[in-house]
Amino acid sequence: xxxHQKYVxxxxxxxxxxxGFFLIPGLSNGSETSLPAEPNTALKQAREAVRTxxxxxxxxxxxxxxxxxxxxEYSRAITKLKLSVRLWPxxxxxxxxxxxxxxxxxxxxxxxSAYLEAIRLKPDLVEAREYLAEAYxxxxxxxxxxxxxxxxVLKTLDQEEADAVEMLMRKLDL
Length: 174
Known about the structure:
This protein is mainly alpha-helical and 174 residues long. It has one domain (2-24, 38-171): Serine Threonine Protein Phosphatase 5, Tetratricopeptide repeat, CATH 1.25.40.10. It is built from seven helices and no strands. InterPro entries: TPR-like_helical_dom_sf, TPR_rpt.
């Protein structure tokens, strides 16, 4: 975290240097100096520059992660996409692609969380809704198979209980 703070501090200093604030007496030696009205604008510009730089880095990680995702290198894609959402948490598409990579690795809990975050950020993001539905369907199929396996074991232990479970499974169309 301290490295990140130093990085932001360095960027702000470079921006302020570019606006000529190094010329204000007392500012470079750390003593209190009242600044003219422009520093508010300069500070806003500095913050905007930092935000823009973070978004640019996030976009690069997003593009790299998406390229890795399309070449089915899901572990590497996850690393890039996680960096993207860390730098730009409002980028819904990055959350959606992260969910896709998690789902392809059968990490359904993480996938569903990522899709839900993408949908929270951008409710009309079609691919996030599509992939979320696919994740739920894959999970349902997985649980259906697990339920059938457990039913077979239960039949060897207690037929009466197995009949009750089997009736429930038919009722639920499993």
